[in-house]
Design brief:
The chain is of the alpha+beta class. The protein has two domains: about 1-30; about 45-310, endopeptidase fold (from Nostoc punctiforme) (Alpha-Beta Complex). Helix content is about 50%, strand content about 15%. Strand 4 and strand 5 form a beta hairpin. About 40% of the residues are buried.
Length: about 325
């Protein structure tokens, strides 16, 4: 082939490549928010860890109903909760929404109980705070689809009442008393005693309890509608003590027609025990899978509680 032929061949190749690039750019520029989220970091090609928290938050790493466990250094109430529960964590929340789930949302928000009631807080506020570290866990089952994720988070919004506008000193005092009482007797009895006095337990406990209630109630609703088998309820009970009150795996079949009623009545019978779930219970359960730890502006992939403790101590 002469030189002119070579140049013509190269020119044709360049034109074809340019057209392909232009087409790809056109697709990218007209992508929907959902397509952009799918193309965002968080895929296999971006599996480089640890990574900056800004990159993590702009990616497609989180899902609705992911469980968020936090701890704030230098905070008295946080220290008391951790002391009372022998835990690395003092608070629990849940991923509520984000740009990857809902149009018109910028950033990822968690739902949590605060002193003023239910709050939607930007996860960035936790993740970029050097005095706080954040761990993320996820519930994974084939039947736990997007609609059920959305319902779990909705239960939290339904359940938390706007009644936590106490003075900070009163909140701290309650936390001290709750922690002392929990050391002396079971958490369930302490929650029950608070309810009898028309008090609410410290909202750090309320929030972790509500994470539990969210999963349980959403599953019970599915069981009532006949969409889920009664035995899947055991999958979402994160307290070993509460789970022990349910039939063992494989034993539900012996209940026959009573299996459905057994599952439906479970929440009412053990309501106080479910509300008494602590951040440590959520950390300890193997039913939630460890995913990430955010500390000092860096996100680490973790596979166990031991991995988390190595990074935070």
């Amino acid at each position: 082939m002469n030189k002119s032929g070579v140049w013509r061949t190269m020119l044709c190749a360049a034109v074809i490549a340019g057209a392909a690039c232009g087409s790809a750019l056109a697709v990218t520029s007209s992508s929907t928010p959902q397509q952009k989220a799918a193309q965002a970091p968080g895929k296999a090609l971006d599996d480089v860890w640890p990574k900056p928290v800004t990159e993590f938050l702009s990616g497609n790493y989180l899902e609705r109903a992911d469980v968020v466990l936090t701890r704030r250094a230098g905070d008295i109430a946080s220290s008391l909760i951790r002391w009372a529960t022998n835990s690395a964590f003092s608070h629990a929340a849940m991923v509520y929404t984000g740009a990857q789930f809902d149009q018109g949302i910028s950033g990822t928000f968690v739902i949590e109980a605060g002193t003023s009631g239910v709050d939607l807080t930007a996860l960035r506020d936790y993740a970029t705070n050097k005095s706080t570290f954040v761990a993320i866990k996820r519930f994974k089952r084939d039947w736990f689809n997007g609609a059920r994720q959305a319902r779990v988070r909705g239960v939290l919004l339904d359940k938390i009442k706007d009644s936590y506008d106490f003075w900070t000193i009163w909140r701290i005092t309650r936390n001290i008393w709750f922690g002392v009482q929990s050391k002396m007797r079971s958490r369930e009895k302490t929650v029950e005693a608070y309810h009898k006095r028309d008090w609410e337990p410290p909202n750090e406990y309320i929030c972790s309890g509500l994470v539990q209630i969210g999963f349980v109630q959403a599953v019970i609703e599915g069981i009532k509608r006949g969409e889920l088998s009664p035995e899947v309820l055991r999958d979402v009970v994160f307290s070993k003590s509460a789970a022990s009150r349910l039939p063992a795996p494989g034993d539900w079949k012996y209940l026959g027609a009573d299996a459905k009623d057994t599952a439906i009545n479970f929440q009412d019978i053990l309501n106080d025990e479910l509300y008494a779930i602590t951040p440590e219970d959520l950390a300890q359960t193997e039913k939630l899978e460890w995913l990430y730890l955010i500390k000092d502006g860096v996100v680490h992939k973790v596979a166990s509680y031991a991995d988390v403790l190595k990074l935070v101590r």
